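Supplementary Methods. Inverse-folding protocol.

Structures were first reduced to a discrete structure-token string of length 328. This string, shown here, constituted the complete conditioning input.
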């Protein structure tokens, strides 16, 4: 049975055994579902790239049980990495450090660096511990979606992406809803390569300094490609005013286009338009974001007009995902 109930301890053991045998297993984390393979098995990792349709040069995050396991993959462990690991692991933060030569070559996409994360989700933790018992030190796992598409936050969404043959540990809805923040710890000053569930301000408070923005020399992060996280429908981000004006223009004009509005303010979209309210709380908005986009697709919506979230720092992760979804 490809879909395993994560609440059953036997499921965890079965999933770990499959990973150890080089098979792929999708599993829940506190951010989104991951599509996992043992990190030390280049053939298994190649199957992840093939399943996702992801270019081989785009590195995967290696998930580990704890800091000690993380350090096995690193050739250097800077103070910044240690400070952040102590503060935020297990949790939604990925650290980029120098990779130990010969370790997880394929997972690292050939880069001399490696992305490491200790996830907090109890199912991910249990899976990592069980895998470790089978000599699997790390699970390489990108988000469980086809390259460039919307990430999966439910087991059913993973099956939608990859079919029902794939083994999925069903741990219910991912609580976070958007991916981890990624910090490159290798340089003089840490760089925020991807904003995420863990907010920039919390990272900066622990470090006592500001995170740098990526520049031309920063490593490529596919989650930071301009176009990513895209639903089937065309998505457009609009200010409250733009949205109000566009809806006023449309009013009373019948159209064959199936339009949806995803808004926060009291705007009323009018007849024939799907409307969904975005939560006022940024954590709640992150939690439902990818599921909401998938719902619009399931309803065969062709265009989604999204009211721009607030510019405040707490909304950075959601804003980032929406901007990239709109760039497709
Ligand atoms: O929350 C998350 O981070 C989820 C869950 C499953 O852990 N994973 C995730 O993986 O979002 P993925 O592959 O969709 O995005 C990981 C990003 C990619 O953009 C990749 O390019 C970047 O991390 N990355 C991984 N290793 C890297 C490295 N060595 N150097 C630079 N970027 C790296
Ligand atoms: Mg992804």
């Amino acid at each position: 049975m490809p879909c395993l109930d994560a609440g059953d301890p036997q499921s965890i053991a079965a999933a770990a055994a499959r990973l150890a045998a080089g098979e792929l297993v999708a599993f829940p984390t506190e951010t989104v579902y991951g599509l996992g393979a043992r990190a030390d098995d280049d053939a298994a990792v190649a199957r992840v790239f093939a399943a996702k349709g992801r270019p081989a040069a785009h590195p995967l995050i290696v998930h580990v049980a704890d800091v000690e396991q993380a350090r096995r993959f690193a050739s250097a462990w800077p103070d910044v990495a240690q400070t952040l690991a102590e503060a935020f692991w297990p949790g939604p933060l990925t650290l980029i450090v120098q990779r130990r030569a010969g370790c997880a070559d394929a997972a690292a996409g050939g880069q001399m660096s490696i992305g490491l994360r200790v996830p907090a989700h109890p199912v991910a933790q249990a899976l990592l511990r069980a895998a470790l018992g089978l000599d699997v030190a790390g699970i390489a796992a990108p988000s469980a979606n086809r390259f460039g598409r919307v990430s999966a936050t439910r087991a059913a969404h993973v099956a939608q992406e990859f079919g029902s043959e794939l083994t999925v540990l069903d741990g219910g809805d991912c609580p976070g809803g958007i991916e981890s923040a990624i910090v490159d710890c290798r340089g003089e000053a840490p760089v925020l390569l991807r904003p995420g569930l863990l907010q920039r301000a919390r990272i900066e408070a622990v470090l006592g300094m500001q995170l740098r923005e990526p520049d031309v020399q920063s490593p490529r992060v596919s989650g930071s490609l301009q176009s990513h996280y895209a639903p089937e429908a065309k998505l457009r981000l609009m200010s409250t005013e733009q949205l109000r004006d566009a809806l006023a223009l449309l009013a009373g004009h019948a159209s064959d286009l199936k339009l949806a509005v995803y808004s926060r303010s009291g705007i009323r979209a009018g007849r024939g338009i799907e409307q969904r309210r975005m939560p006022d709380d940024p954590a709640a908005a992150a939690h439902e974001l990818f599921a909401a986009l998938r719902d619009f697709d399931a309803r065969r919506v062709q265009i989604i007009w999204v009211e721009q979230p607030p510019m405040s720092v707490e909304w950075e992760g959601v804003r980032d995902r929406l901007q990239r979804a709109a760039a497709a």
